[in-house]
Amino acid sequence: MSESPISDEMQRHYWKHGYVVAPGLLEQADLDLWLERLDAIVNGRVPPAEGMLVMRDVMVAKGAVKPGTRMEAIAKLQDYEKDPVLDSYTVHPSILDCVERFIGRDVMTIHTMLINKPPNVDGRHPLHQDLLYFPFRPASRIVASWTALERVTKENGCLVVVPGTHEGELLEHENPPDIEWLNAAYFGAKAVGEAMERRVHLEMEPGDTVFFHPVLLHGSGRNRTQGFRRAISAHYSALDVHWGWNHEHFGNRKYRILRGERAGQRWSRTA
User: Fold this and answer.
1) CATH code for the part of the protein at 8-267
2) Spatial distance between the Cα atoms of 251 and 106, rounded to a whole number of angstroms
3) Taking the domains of the chain in order of start, what are their residue ranges?
4) What is the arithmetic mean of pLDDT over 159-172?
5) Is the pTM of this model over 0.85?
6) Would you say 88 and 94 are in contact if contact means Cβ atoms under 8 Å apart?
7) Residue 154, C-beta contacts closer than 8 angstroms, at least 6 positions apart
């Protein structure tokens, strides 16, 4: 491993608060590459890779909003692992050098997405915990990376986090009854109570990257501007995890090992 951008102080911040931001981690040239690929996929110049879901915002899908452009219709590219351009984020040395500081040398990738929060839709994701979506345990062996592809602010729906909640338990989640237009699987944690008052807004510049724990309560607000709020993200796990629950979507999948003695191989629940 090359020298990590994550200092000892940043690592301590992560374990105390459940997240840490690495400012300016990635170069603009990388961000431009991924933004250009997003545009090419959305506008039909490049077909979606095998397994990729090009997800429309629910308000567009149900006809409540008529988008002015194709890009204004799209909420997310889910599972971009087989797209060689977007996947260069997942395997980016600067990202992996940071990931190693949190979960160790043996690293596999377990989830990828590019989030495109367009204007004129609700687009909120209520406070939630990512561990809900993963069967791997313990939670401390999983980490998320989330990189701003352009400036993210309160006005365009930046991430919010609730420091320290990573030390709690996985909460029950639901479709919040107070959000009429909720994108598929944008669940919210129940009974967050006073956590709403302790939210920290993570306003970030292009290339800034936040790493966070899968039990950390976090979410994002509505984009109130006429621009976009775009970010690219991946989740990683160590290899020394066990299965907390079973589901057919996960049970037969073989996950790519990116670093460590088994780099280049695949990990599954049986191997």
Assistant:
1) 2.60.120.620
2) 21
3) 8-267
4) 96
5) yes
6) no
7) 201, 203, 221
